[in-house]
Amino acid sequence: MKPDFPHDPATLPETFGERASDRVAAIGGSWGFILAFTLVLFGWMLLNSDVLSHWGLEFDPYPYVFLNLMLSTLAAIQAPIIMMSQNRQAEKDRLAAQNDYDVNLRAEIEIKALHEKIDALAAAQAALIAQLERSR
């Protein structure tokens, strides 16, 4: 039987934007992204510094102003999207912590009730033993 938690993080509805921000954060925070992005940057610089400059066709010569603009735009868009994902994860973590607290509280109440039952049984057993000893 699954416990009925009022705020189960697994059942939170997700909008398209939330799913997208989680995906962007998962991709943007990976070594694969870092390595691929590094290769793209070096490729861009190599292409504009050596390959296309031989024919005078470089579209973004050193100091790579267009590349800087694209990197700044990417950072300006990617940072808030990753922050949205982190905020969502923090909310999920908060709800999971609240659920853990609720479970622990319920377990504590049950354990206390069991202690009371065991104490009552022990007292009844002690009374029965005392009564049997008196009747001897």
UniProtKB/TrEMBL annotation:
<keyword id="KW-0472">Membrane</keyword>
<keyword id="KW-1133">Transmembrane helix</keyword>
<feature type="transmembrane region" description="Helical">
    <location>
        <begin position="24"/>
        <end position="44"/>
    </location>
</feature>
<dbReference type="Pfam" id="PF06210">
    <property type="entry name" value="DUF1003"/>
</dbReference>
<feature type="transmembrane region" description="Helical">
    <location>
        <begin position="64"/>
        <end position="84"/>
    </location>
</feature>
<protein>
    <recommendedName>
        <fullName>Cyclic nucleotide-binding protein</fullName>
    </recommendedName>
</protein>
<dbReference type="InterPro" id="IPR010406">
    <property type="entry name" value="DUF1003"/>
</dbReference>
<keyword id="KW-0812">Transmembrane</keyword>
